[in-house]
Amino acid sequence: MSALLELKHLTVEFHTRAGVLHAVNDLSYSLAAGETLGIVGESGSGKSVHALAMVGLIPSPPGRIVSGEVLFNGRNLIGMPERQLRDIRGKEIGFVFQDPMTSLNPVLTVGRQIMEPLRRHLKLSQNAARKRAVELLDLVGIVDPDRRLDQFPHEFSGGMRQRVMIAIGISCEPKLLIADEATTALDVTVQAQILELVRDLKRKIGTTVIWITHDMGVVAGLADTVQVMYGGRIMERGPVSAIFRDPRSAYTWGLLRSLPGKITAPGQRLYQIPGSPPNMVHPPAGDPFAPRNSFATDRCRTEVPPLRQVDGGAAGHQVAAWYDLRSAIANQGAQS
Amino acid sequence: MTEHPLARVTGLQKTFGDERLMSTNRQVFRAVDNVSFEIMAGETLGLVGESGSGKSTTGRVLLQLDKPTGGEIEFDGNRITGLSKRELKPYRKEMQIIFQDPYASLNPRMTVGDFVEEPLIVHGLFKDRQQRRARVMELFTLVGLDQSFATRYPHEFSGGQRQRVSIARAIALNPRFIVCDEPITALDVSIQAQIVNLFQDLQEKLGLTYLFIAHDLSMIRYLCHRVAVMLRGRVVEIGPTEAIFANPQHAYTKALLSAIPVPDPELERQRRPIGFDYQTQKSPADAQLRPVGENHYVLA
Question: How many CA atoms does the CB half-sphere of A137 hold within 13 Å?
């Protein structure tokens, strides 16, 4: 598999009244064609901002891409003229964002919004675009698609609007689909259908997917590779089985441990990570997770750890940590 | 947990729509449709269902924040439906609600200390200002907030801290019953466990009873003694948490449980969600909750 997408040292900041917010810090990773990357993180992790920055959707000001390259099929998207970017967005790179209420235009029919990229990018005729739009709505599981095309977004429920967004996202059969918390607001039953649809698309047209979420369960079922982000950086990255079975970042380990499914005896307390996510206007020096990490060493508090291959780990399993999680856990167990 | 019901609803109804007597448009939406259940003192009852199933409306009507259009509500053995505002006031102290969005429920122009103190003033609980402030400090400690935070404003806090402030205000009047309406949904993952643990600590220390409304079923399973499943305004199944999860009876409960993603790559790849057809599998209008096990009922 060759790299479809390669980020090199991407750094994004926002100029706010409180100061400069360091949203994405020196982020580098690559994604192979056909791969599904699950990105896990919470607010301030940079997971959404970096995805928007990749395709020139950061409002500037206040946002600013300070440095870095985003190579998509070998072409650098950063600094590319807006006209060329528009030919890539929606055609080669499709998006699905969290909030379908604000992402759809309320005064245009759903059909018009699905047909727009088809006519613009694929140069389909009005009739052909309509036919394709009906197929797309049918594909995402909307009943009576021909009639639904002429309705407005407010006539659709939240789950149905999200399906429309997915239909638009995949309409031009993009090489890369970026979904940012695309199912978070949906009911679990609808989420299950949407995830099945994405798996189906991968089978049928081999779409490469970046699935951004905070839900470890969704990632477990969908991703080939998992990337855990915190404070605008990658804390850990690797094959999905390695991340869940053998986490090496204290943050990943804490997140997995705090899930209620791990509790077997009733009345037992959940494991909780202390503290709050960092304020990225004043990010911690060194490892961003250090202030909440009981395993942190002095070096963690002063120097940012580089992402490196895990010793004795699975191929492609990388962690950014100065401490060794396994021996730190063993030591702590011995002391208590 | 005791065998004494603290709250009981019987045949609860809440319809929205055209209520004018002479209206020709008789279309009404039954948000809550003939719902009956009890919540035992010291218990956590989970209320789950999809958006629009009526779970939040049930919580609001139960607290009389919205007037029911039918049915009875009892609190601690006393009927509280049809009471005047003044008659209801003593019950208001006993019943509180915590919302999903701690950003929207806090007043941005009030220090969080004043925000927590406000209900104490409204209900005239302390004549002496100093005693009242001491109670606020005690509440801050109870919810795990530093007392020095009391003079700060909401924007200075993270989502988790704001939810702690909302909780401090909700327990200020020593309530016995709290409706928690998706209280962790908007929080960061690393914060959710903190708040869930806090709910459990407070239940233990203060003997609280919760109606816990959520769509995160894994948290419901961990936190609740019993679970009620709602579909289109009706309770389709209710029972002990373990019975519901291990032995779901209603087709919708089965579909709902099978749709939960499991944070385990091997198990998750084998999981096959069960579908649910709203048209063919819906319960008939005259269906009743019938026992299928100990304290376990299903609409049939």
Answer: 25
Q: Rounded mean pLDDT of chain B? A: 91
CA distance A135 to A152: 18
- Judged by CB atoms closer than 8 Å, whether chains meet at B158 and A158 is answered as no
Contact residues for B13 (Cβ-Cβ < 8 A; gap 6+): B30, B32, B33, B34, B35, B68, B69, B70, B71
CB contact under 8 A, B261 and A273: no
Residue A85 forms part of a structural domain: yes
What is the rounded CA–CA span in Å between residue A100 and residue A153?
9
What ranges in B13-72 are assigned the alpha helix state H? 55-62
- Window A:20-59, CB contacts with B under 8 Å: 42-43
For residue B53, which of B286, B253, B266 has the smallest C-alpha distance?
B253
User: A129 and A198: one domain?
Assistant: yes
> β-strand A176-180 against A93-96: which pairing, if any?
parallel
User: What is the domain count for chain A?
Assistant: 2
Q: How far apart, in whole angstroms, are the C-alpha atoms of residue A218 and residue B199?
A: 26
Mean pLDDT of A38-66: 92
Q: How far is CA A172 from CA A77, A114, A167, B228, in A?
A: 19, 10, 9, 43
pLDDT at B72 over 90: yes
Tokens of B258: 């099978």
pLDDT in tens, A93-147: 999 987 655 678 999 999 999 999 999 999 999 999 999 999 999 888 788 999 9
Judged by CB atoms closer than 8 Å, whether chains meet at A187 and B51 is answered as yes
Q: What is the pLDDT of residues B184-226, one digit of tens each?
A: 988 888 899 999 999 999 999 999 999 999 988 888 999 999 9
pLDDT mean across residues, chain A:
91
Interval A183-225: pLDDT, tens: 887 788 888 888 988 898 888 888 999 999 999 999 999 999 9
Q: How far apart are CA A231 and CA A247, in angstroms?
A: 18
Total count of domains within chain B? 1
Minimum-distance CB partner of A258 among B158, B190, B256: B190
If you measure CA to CA, which chain A residue comes closest to B261?
A: A217
Tell me if chain B has a CB within 8 Å of the CB of A220. Answer: yes
Residue count of chain B, please give it: 300
Residue A254: its chain B contacts at CB < 8 A? 190
Residues A153 and A256 in one domain: no
Q: What mean pLDDT comes out for the span B63-75?
A: 94
In this complex, how many residue pairs, one in chain A and one in chain B, have their CB atoms less than 8 Å apart? 111
Q: Residue A50 in contact with residue A10, Cβ under 8 Å?
A: yes
Beta bridge partners of B178: B96, B210
| Span B239-252, average pLDDT | 95
pLDDT score of B2 more than 70: no
Buried b (16+ CB within 10 A) or exposed e, B243-269: bbbeebbbbbbbbbbbbbbbbbbeebe
Q: Say yes or no for a CB contact (<8 Å) between A220 and B268.
A: yes
Can you give the residue range of the structural domain that contains A171? 33-59+77-229
**Cα A120 from Cα B123, distance rounded (Å):** 63
Residues of chain A neighbouring B264 (CB-CB closer than 8 A) = 220, 244
A200 located within any domain? yes
Q: Is the pLDDT of residue B25 over 70?
A: no
A15-50 burial, b if ≥16 CB within 10 A, otherwise e? eeeeeebbbbbbbebebeeebbbbbbbbbbbbbbbb
